[in-house]
Please model this.
Amino acid sequence: MLEKIVECVPNFSEGRDKAVIERITAEIKTVSGVQLLSVEPGADVNRAVVTFIGSPEGVKEAAFKAIKKAAELIDMSKHKGAHPRMGATDVCPFVPVSGVTMQECVEISRAVGQRVGEELGIPVYLYEESAAAPERRSLANIRTGEYEALPEKLQDPQWQPDYGPAKFNPRAGATVIGAREFLIAYNITLNTKDKQLAMDIAFELREKGRSVRTGNVHPVYMRGDLVKYREGHFPCGNCDFAGKTFRETREHCKAEHDYDPYDLLDSHGSDAENPMGWSVKQPGKFRHVRAIGWYVEEYKRAQISINLTNYKISSMHEVLEETRKMAAQRGLVVTGSEIVGLVPFEAIYQAGKYYLQQQGKPAGVPAADVLESAIFSMGLNDVAPFKPEEKILGLPKFPEKALVNLKTREFVDEVSRDTPAPGGGSIAALAGSLGAALACMVGSLTIGKKGYEKVQQELLALAERAQEVKDQLIKAVDEDTNAFNAYMEATRLPANTAEEKKIREEAIQQGLKQAVNVPLNTARLSFEALKLAAEAVEKGNANSVTDAAVGAQIAYTGVVGGNFNVLTNLPQIKDTRFKEEMKSACANLEEEAREILDETLNWVKEKIAGLSKK
Model:
C-alpha cells in the first residue's frame, strides 16, 4: 500500500519581497507531515511558485494557513507584475502523487475553498477537475480580466464564486483552487546537435500536432511544402479526404479521426473562423503532451523537451518508445532521457513494469528492481546521475529507526531483549511477509518454463499480488510495535481529576482498539499470503513445491499470530459489539486458514512420496 501523498503548488502574487515570501512559506513549515520542496520567486512577474507535499490532511491545513498569511501580507490593490493574476493567492492546485485518488484531491480542494471563502471572506473559484461547470475548468477563462475586472465580474450571475462572498475584496482579490494531474517535465536526448530534427519529432508527438506538408517529407517532415486551405478545397490532413467546405471537413475529421480541425487551428493561433489561406493542421500522437525541440549547450546535444500533463493517459515509456521509432526513421538514436524536477513513484514504477514485461520477465519483483529496470531502460543516467531518493515522490521507504531496517541478527537480538516490543505481533507480520515472498519466488521461477504455458498469466498475477502483500506485511512489522507504544503512552496519561481520568480512559480504549486492528490486518494479509502460497504449490514449478509449502506454513503462522494478538487485547476493551466482531473475524480466519494449510501440506506430502518411489 502506497503512502498517501498530495502535492500542492500555490502561486502567490509576490515575487520581490523576500521577507513576505518567507513569512508565507513559514506557515507551511509549521504543519506536521508536510515538506516544503521549493520556492521559486520571479521579480518580473512579481509572483512566487511554491511546492510542498505531505499527507492529505497536512497539505490541506498547510494550504489554508499559507493562503491566510498571503491575504494578510499582500495588498492586491498595489500589485504590479507581468503575469496574469487575480488574487494574493492566485491559484492553488492539489495534485495526487501516490496512494491518493483525483477525487480525494477534488474533495481537499473543495474543503480548502470553503474555508477560504467562509473564514477569510475571499471569493473562491474552483477549476480543472474540481470545476462545477465546463467553462470553469480553464484557469485562463476564470482569470479573464484579472484582478482589475473582479468588481464587475462578481456582479455577473454567471461568475458567482463557488465559495465565499460575491463581493470584491480589494486587498486579497479572488483565489482559484482545484485539483489537477501531476505534470512531469521529461526530456529525451538525441545523438545530434540539430535542433530542427528534435523539433520535427516534437511536433509529431505533441497533442496539438503540426502543419501538414507534402513533397520532400522524408526523412524530415518539416522540410516539405505546407498544405493550405483554399477555396473549395479543405484537406483532412490525416487521409486523402478533402471537403468542399471547412464544415464538411470538420464533420469528416470528427467522425473518422476523433478530432475537430477548428480546435487544432485555434490552438496554433490560426483564424479558425476563417481558415482560408491557413496551413492544414494534423493532431499529434499523444494527448496531454506538450513538446518542443531545443539544443542544450551543456550536453552538446539536441533534446525533445516534453511536458506530460496527464501521465496516466500518456506515459513516459509510451512517449519514449514512440520517439525511438521516430528517431530511427530519421537516422537518429535516442541516447537517453532525463526527468526535470520530480516524478511520481507510480509513473516510473509503471515504466519499470512495462520494460520487464517487454523482456519477458515477471513484474512481481521488489520495487527497487522495478525502478532499476525503468532507470536503465529509459537511460535516465545519460546526461546526469538519476538519484531515486531525490527524484521520486512517494518512494516507498521506512523511518531510519524502523525495525525492518535492521540486519537479521540485529532484529533477532532486538526481539530477544527484555522489552515487550517488538513482540509476537511484529513476528507474525514478518512471518506473513516471508510466506508471501516465497509464493512470489515460486511464481516467478515458474514463469517462462516449458510445460507451464497455460498458467503463465495466472502466475504473473500471483507474483505481482504477492509482492504487494509482502510489502504491506513488512510495514505491519513496525505498525504493530507502534500501536503497542501508543497504548502504553495512553496508560501514562495523568489521572488526578475526573476530567483527566475520562481523557485517559478514552485514550486507552482507543489505543486498545488500534492494538487490535493492526494485528487483525496482519492476520488478514497473512491469510492472503497463505492462499497465494497454496496457489503456487498447485500451479508452480514442481521443483519448487516445497518452497511454496514452507511459504504456506509460515503464512499460517502469521494468521494465528495475528489472531493471538487480537484476542489478548480484547478483554480490556469495553465495547461489547466490537469485541464480538473481532472474535468472529479471528475464528473465521483461522478455520479457513487451517483448511487451506492442511489441504496444501497433504498435497505436497503426497507429491514428495510419489517422487521418492520413482
Remarks:
- DSSP finds 18 helices and 19 strands in the chain.
- Residues 498-539 form the longest helix (42 residues).
